[in-house]
Amino acid sequence: MKNGFSILGVVALSLTLLFSHAPIAQAGGSLSAGQVSQYKEAKAAGKLVEVGNGYLSPGAGADGGLVALMNQINALRKEKYQAIANTNNVPLQAVEMSAGSKLTD
């Protein structure tokens, strides 16, 4: 059990560092300024919604362009989550769920 707590602590620290550069880190870190602005506006309007698995889901009024942006962000997030999982030797799903809990708070 002691190892479980230390691994979760390392994952939590990694996620804290990832999300300390919000919103670009939340979105994946490889977005243009215009895309970051579009992402922020869509989240504020409820057109992109954080879900408990660490990814975005389309909300009411999300059009094809927002869905494409959402898919790009989710792919970038998955890359970052996988890197954290690999670095800490934990399952991807553990990182995703940890990120989801931080994003939906």
Q: How does the overall form come out from the CA principal axes?
A: elongated
What is the structural class? mainly alpha
Total tally of structural domains: 1
Taking the sheet with the most strands, its summary is: 2 strands, antiparallel
Estimate the helix proportion, in percent: 55-70%
Distance between the termini: 26 Å
Structure overview:
With 105 residues, the chain is mainly alpha-helical. The protein has one domain (2-103). It has five helices and two strands; from the N terminus they run αααββαα. The protein has helices at residues 2-19, 24-27, 33-44, 64-88, 92-103; strands spanning 48-50, 56-58. The chain has a two-stranded antiparallel sheet. α4 crosses α5. The longest helix is centred in the C-terminal third of the chain and has 25 residues, at 64-88. It starts with a helix and ends with a helix.
